[in-house]
Amino acid sequence: MALLGASGSIGTQALDVCRQHADRLSVVALSVHASTDMLVRAAREFGVAHVAVTDGAHRDDPILSELPTGCSCSFGHEALTDLVRLDDVDCVLNAVVGFAGIEAGFAALRADKVVTYANKESIVVGGDLLMPLARPGRLIPVDSEHSAIYQCLVGEQRRAPHAIWLTCSGGPFRGMTREQLARVTAADALRHPTWRMGPKITIDSATLMNKGLEVLEASQLFDVGIDDVTVLVHPQSHIHSMVEFADGSVKAQLGPSDMRLPIQYAFSYPERWEPPAPRVDWRTVSDLVFEAPDEETFGCLALAREAGRRGGTLPCAMSAANEVANRAFRENRCGFLDIEACVAHVMERSEVVPVESLGQLVDIDMRSRELAGRFLSRCVR
After folding, report:
1. Is the peptide bond preceding residue 270 cis, with omega within 30 degrees of 0?
2. Does 145 appear as a known binding residue?
3. Binding site annotation covers 127?
4. Which of 101, 189, 257, 381 has an alpha carbon 20 to 30 Å from 284's alpha carbon atom?
5. Is 74 annotated to bind ligand?
6. Global pTM value
7. What are the structural domain ranges in the chain?
8. Contact, 281 vs 331, CB < 8 A?
9. Is 119 annotated as a binding residue?
10. Which residues make up the binding site for Mn(2+) (predicted)?
11. 169 carries a ligand binding annotation
């Protein structure tokens, strides 16, 4: 195993799975952005042979001298691509947050590794480049919803399903008006009602941008149209997604709201191992609620759908603007509704052309971030 983004929410829960199944999984490579203390602890615990720190400013951190004997340590984002190409790596978990994970995902697929994918942004942005490289059974989604869809499709004919029902908790602000949303804080948004996630995805869940990104991700992963993916608000988060087939039959994957379950399934596929989380006693589960999302109040979902329908390079511009605005909100440099306004502003000013190369996407990502930054500099808190 090579775990990229090992210090984040997905990475640390993946390490939990590796601890539980140490007889089946061997961690040989780890990466972090800046959390060198955590990196050294994990490298020593798992006897890791290779590590990478993408933030070069931490090159001289004294703690790195305590890495295991013989453990190699490299720096910078290019170090991620070196890790995934290592001969002793069979499976790569890409849990790097945001666009930064795209090059490592591309390299891992080209190296014909099994890639377990938690970096939805790179599939949203570069799916036109990544998906043609993915052989059957070699790209396995880690997002709980996409893992659920993947599991529902196992054993089915490869013909496209009639519809995908992509479930959504509704986030912490479900039922609020735009007037109320104008007053919420980052601390409010970070209190997700059902899932334990990193700060970026938690804010995306509050704006419903996360669900918009997941619609585009599902479209790429399962080769269906944007409008064949229907978002379904399900606050209890017991049903992780559903697939409807031509005859009207529907398969759903249910389970605890614990990311270790889809992480483990990605590692164990096609097998199933002992559970990484407590089982659900379905006798104690109350009513299951389903609602349509409020796309007028939470406009990021509608913007993501528009980007997916228009396609080409627009999802790249949309995702870049969202990353910049998401961070600005967490740093109290803009309001909650400014995230949506920033994304709309950048999309309106973006030329849409076919995706041709990774270098092209890097350039569009950079220009979109600059445009988003200029827009946010005019926001007043």
Report:
1. yes
2. yes
3. no
4. 189
5. no
6. 0.93
7. 2-141
8. no
9. yes
10. 143, 145, 214
11. yes
